[in-house]
Amino acid sequence: MLSGCTPKDIALASCHDELLAVGDPWSCTVEAAVVGRPSSLHFDTQSRNRVAKVKLALQVAKGTLRLGYRDLTGDRQASVTPATPMALDFETRMHPDRRSFTLSFEPADGKVEGLSGTVKYSTP
Fold it and tell me: What are the CA-CA distances from residue 15 to residues 12, 44, 93 (Å)?
């Protein structure tokens, strides 16, 4: 998407890879001033491995955020609130054609404010 066309009420990520590191590690920052509608983020890698190890930490300032993700056993959901920030480690299968995995973000009971966190992943 062009930056002028990106909605202002969804989660966004900026990522960088660690050059010449074993396992193709990536580090991403996830942020949103407001999450007002469901959205998804795709995390890509150039690795041919089919499984990624993911470590994420998320917090919100206001509201309840539903996080959707897929681990090796299937689809999962978790909630993030100001009182219950999330720290989660899991493994997920990469999409075979895109070499990526997806996290979904959905506000529960109104808008979520002040989303921040990190997603770190590698494909050992």
Answer: 10, 9, 19
16-73, pLDDT tens digit by residue? 987 766 667 999 999 999 999 999 999 998 788 899 999 999 999 999 999 999 999 9
Helix (H) or strand (E) holding 74: strand 74-80
pTM of the model: 0.89
Q: Are 37 and 7 in contact (CB under 8 A)?
A: yes
| Amino acid identity, position 94 | M
Here the contacts of 22-27 (C-beta below 8 Å, separation 24 or greater) are 22/124, 23/53, 23/122, 23/123, 23/124, 24/49, 24/122, 24/123, 25/120, 25/121, 25/122, 26/120, 26/121, 26/122, 27/118, 27/119, 27/120
- CA dist., res. 96 & res. 22, Å (int): 21
Q: Please state, in angstroms and rounded to a whole number, the distance separating the CA atoms of residues 26 and 111.
A: 29
